[in-house]
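Meet the record:
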Amino acid sequence: DMQVSGVEDDSRALNIIIHKPTSNPHAKPVPILQANFIFADHIRCIIAKQRLAKGRIQARRMKMQRIA
């Protein structure tokens, strides 16, 4: 799974954390990648955040279709 959040100090930065999938739903997720991305302006940052959210929703939808 992926977690995207904005950085409080900078409106041009995104903090992205990608977690390793676990077979146990009660286990704490282990981060594979944790990175800060800094964009040229806050508009590009917002667009990137929206695209990442849309991609995450599409990936979850595809997983559910494979299961069902």
